[in-house]
Design goal:
Blueprint (H helix, E strand, L loop, with lengths): L19 E4 L14 E10 L5 H14 L12 H5 L3 H18 L7 E4 L4 E2 L3 H15 L7 E13 L2 E11 L13 H4 L1 H15 L5 H15 L4 H4 L10 H6 L9 H14 L7 E10 L4 E11 L2 E5 L1 H4 L17 E3 L3 E5 L5 E6 L1 H7 L1 H4 L10 E8 L2 E3 L3 E6 L3 E3 L1 E6 L12 E5 L5 E3 L4 E4 L4 E9 L4 E9 L7 E4 L4 E5 L3 E3 L2 E4 L8 E5 L5 E3 L4 E4 L3 E9 L6 E9 L1
Length: 561
């Protein structure tokens, strides 16, 4: 089982009021100024209230990937532009804001930002810088995810008593650092922008597909792009890295992810998409188990045609317990929101999912209640069939002592769609076990006792279909033979066509038929109904019951050149 460690992160939307302390350290120097004499002064500004780099990066990626669709703060706010009235303050603010944006998206590497053409009094420049920085942190805090928040060096230079130039030197955090403390790693800084472009290309590629085809394609693309990071899941690497989403789409084979990356990547592609059938994707967390181990996990819930399904892209990848497709748009065998859900893959292996309390609190029953347990997915009807033939409800069939019959139940929803999984779960019952018994799979065993017995198939929400068996000692003979399709057909020379015959009643003791051609020079037919055209002409193919009832039917076939 693929699992991962996680700490459920609430998206943080905040407004920072910066506490910027100007330190009078050994790095600051004040000069006695003569008229028009050049001067330079440097101070250290400390940032006390910026969150850690990972938290800021998460916010920046949220804004970059979603282009402000799901946030209340714009990628670059404009409070400073409105509140700053002094032209010098505005010039510094605009210069910083533009440069910080370019550094954040990888357009430029230098974190030394110079603003020229100022006309500030030497006694006021420090106050002006402090004010500008407060608005910068308020308007675009996330864009400073690369900044080592210990301090920034700010120098002022000019002549006489006027500051003409202010220069900011922002120290780069080690994980984003380039060739020195004031340059960034261009490849790493541009990775997010590249990932967004690659993700959008995937969505564009499948834009014309149906909702279900889009979802299938997104899962396949993610699994092709990335592999599972086992070491991270089992504690040998850091979890919760905000780069998880980037690593899925960066097309770098060395950057693999855990469940967080798979789930968030699928969510992102869905969020970028235009769906036709009210399709919505949600990301949830909780505990997953496969009978061998269990642990924290992240996966998706997809609402498609107003029905909720589980999608676990992590375990749809190669080597996962759902690599057979059983955990994609999946319907549970049983379960509930509070107790958790149980699924089964094609190998009969049970997989359990239980929501975290935070997921239940954030999303609620309406979203987390899955198909098979939802009123939106209730069965509208159930129909029985046997030997491939549908039966009318309450049909009476003749049955013979000690014979076995297998019935199938087909469950249909209100939209006419055939339901599967938990929503199609059937409970079988018999009205008289002394005459006939029935298994949970619809296999009926008739006893050596004459009489009439009713076999009932019942869905989870109470819909039923019934068939009556009239049991006797006599073998049930064929009363009718039919060949599916029209009574005539044409076939080109040297071509083949397989015919299918059905006998009535479906409970006949011997269901077999024999096939015969009226002219084997024109066409021949084998024991399975396969017709092979030999030469031009008309031939009659007959299907006769093999039980001695002498019931038969025929079809005319015109052979053309």
């Amino acid at each position: 089982m693929k699992k991962c460690k996680y700490s459920f992160r609430k998206i943080l939307v905040f407004m920072i009021t910066a506490v910027i302390a100007a330190g009078s350290t050994g790095l600051s120097a004040t000069y006695s100024v003569q008229a028009e004499e050049p001067f330079s002064e440097e101070k250290v500004f400390v940032f006390d209230q910026l969150p850690d780099n990972d938290e800021l990066l998460s916010g920046y990626l949220e804004l970059l990937f979603y282009e402000n669709k799901n946030t209340v703060l714009s990628p670059l706010g404009a409070v400073g532009e409105k509140k700053l009235t002094d032209e010098n303050d505005k010039k510094i603010y605009r210069s910083l804001k533009a440069s910080v944006e370019k550094i954040a998206n990888g357009t430029t590497v230098s974190t030394i930002i110079k603003t020229d053409g100022l006309s500030l009094k030497i006694s006021e420049w420090e106050q002006s810088v402090r004010k500008v920085m407060s608005y910068l942190l308020m308007d675009c805090p996330y864009d400073l995810y690369w900044f080592d928040k210990n301090a920034a060096f700010v120098s002022a230079s000019g002549s006489g008593r006027t500051v003409r130039t202010v220069t900011f030197s922002f120290t780069v955090a080690e994980e984003y650092r380039g060739r020195n403390s004031y340059t960034t790693n261009l490849t790493k800084m541009g990775a997010a922008k590249k990932a967004v472009s690659n993700a959008k290309a995937i969505v564009k590629k499948y834009a014309a597909k149906s909702d279900r085809e889009k979802l299938n394609s997104y899962s396949r693309e993610i699994c092709n792009l990335v592999s599972y990071n086992t070491s991270a899941a089992y504690g040998n690497a850091a979890y919760g890295n905000p780069w998880q989403l980037i690593w899925v789409f960066d097309k770098n084979p060395n950057t693999n992810v855990v469940c967080e990356g798979y789930a968030k990547a699928f969510q992102y592609l869905c969020d970028l998409s235009s769906f036709k059938n009210n399709t919505v994707c949600y990301t949830v967390t909780g505990i997953m188990g496969d009978g061998r181990s269990s642990g924290p996990h992240m996966w998706n819930i997809v609402t498609l045609n107003r029905i909720n399904y589980l999608t676990d892209v992590t375990n749809c990848d190669s080597g996962g317990v759902g690599s057979d497709g059983s955990l994609f748009l999946a319907v549970p065998k049983s379960g509930s929101v509070n107790a958790g859900y149980i699924f089964s893959n094609t190998r009969g292996r049970s997989v359990t999912y239980k929501y975290s309390s935070e997921s239940k609190e954030l999303l609620g029953q309406g979203i987390l209640k899955l198909a098979g347990t939802s009123k939106n997915n209730a069965a509208a009807s159930v129909t029985l069939s046997m030997n491939g033939q549908k039966l009318k409800n309450n049909t009476t069939l003749k049955a013979t002592f000690n014979k076995k019959y297998t019935f199938q139940a087909i469950v249909i929803d209100k939209a006419g769609k055939v339901l599967k999984g938990g929503s199609a779960k059937i409970t079988w019952s018999t009205s008289n076990k002394k005459i006939a018994t029935v298994t949970s799979g619809g296999k009926v065993s008739v006893k050596k006792k004459a009489g009439t017995v009713t076999i009932t198939a019942k869905t989870a929400d109470g819909k039923t279909a019934k068939v009556k068996l009239k049991v006797s000692k006599a073998a049930v003979k064929v009363t009718k033979v039919t060949i599916t399709g029209s009574k005539t057909m044409s076939l080109k020379k040297k071509k083949t066509q397989t015919l299918k015959a059905a006998v009535a009643p479906v409970s006949a003791a011997n269901q077999k038929v024999t096939w015969k051609s009226s002219n084997e020079k024109v066409a021949i037919v084998n024991s399975k109904g396969k017709v092979t055209a030999k030469k031009a002409g008309t031939v009659t193919i007959t299907a006769a019951a093999k039980d001695g009832s002498k019931k038969k039917t025929a079809i005319k076939i015109k052979i053309t050149k």
